[in-house]
Known about the structure:
Layout: H1 3-35, H2 39-56, H3 58-74, H4 78-114, H5 122-152
Helix pairs in contact: 1-3, 1-5, 2-4, 3-4, 4-5
Amino acid sequence: MNTLADIAALVAVFCAAIIYGTDLFCALVLRPAASGAADASVADLLGRVHEYGDRRLPVPGVLSIVATALATVTGDGTPARIGGAVALAALLLWLAVYLRISAPINKRLRAAAADHAVPADTRELQQRWDSVIWPRALLQTVALAGLLTIVLTR
């Protein structure tokens, strides 16, 4: 493997790991905690969580995709390229799920928190968001496995 591919793969691993850890925390801790909380608490706290997450997490998210693509096209050897392609597909699918389902819900909860309001459909919004957090965490797991293939097959 060459230096450019090595650096890109490591950047991709570290950046994807940030999103993986966030999604896994949400699946294991935040999701069940929110399911037992009052609607007003969910709307306020999760709206504020999404305010910060949606502002700060795009950087590692985008970097993981760009670095994965770079590592895949510059990598040496078939196992690394296959691992990279699998990782890239998982990251792009994760992004599609996020943009289609999670992001609009995040936006609604952010607006509610900013307005100190409780949407009438808070519980439904949270249940819809919850329905994709395990698949998102699984996609990040697949992406990290593919990225580790790049790193370990050098």
